[in-house]
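Message: I would love a firmer grasp of how sequence relates to backbone shape in proteins. Thank you; the sequence and its tokens follow:
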Amino acid sequence: MPTARERVRAEITAEITEAARRQLAEVGAAALSLRAVAREVGMASSAVYRYFPSRDDLLTRLIIDGYDAVGAAAEAADDPTAAPEQRWSAVCAAVRDWARANPHEYALLYGSPVPGYAAPRDTVPAASRVGVVLGRILGDAARAGLLTGDGGREPGLLGDAAVEILGQDGPGIDDAVRVRALVAYCALFGTVGFELFGQLVGSVEDADRFFARATAELAQLVGIGPAGVRTG
């Protein structure tokens, strides 16, 4: 059980990060300032530095929290008893819903890099959560015989993370599947970003229908769409 001091620290940390989220919405990540956050929560700057020694530490906390939030939304949307293409569409829709509800946090995670900031390795586990859910769907489909690769290997093309997220080599999972999955993963966030940042205005009349069609096309690309099983 947390001590009283630990509870107080957690409460103040949450207050600081919530103020930082409001600053994010008002001025953007590049202009985020610990001094401005300190003023908003009524603390001296020196006191805030005891919780977050630098702006980058605060940004890292916001990034991890954001990745955890969208990852949790994806995990909650996945129903392992449903058909693979239904699971895929539900998870993609959950990512879109989260992005529309949290546009400034989405921009921090998937938008333009913040000048002078380099995300540390600490952000990787949280950043992988959506990919892990999608990878689990593909793995389950492969084990059920609904996804087939060609057994091919493409040395030097994909990094270790692609193997870690999609699992080790097994029936139906190979580099051909991983490449298609990574393309689909990139397309998911690109489609959400285009909608969120107004880049589909004039090109798409019904955003809901377009997104549903896009995710169905991506499911077919990776090999779990209703059009049938793809092979490598």
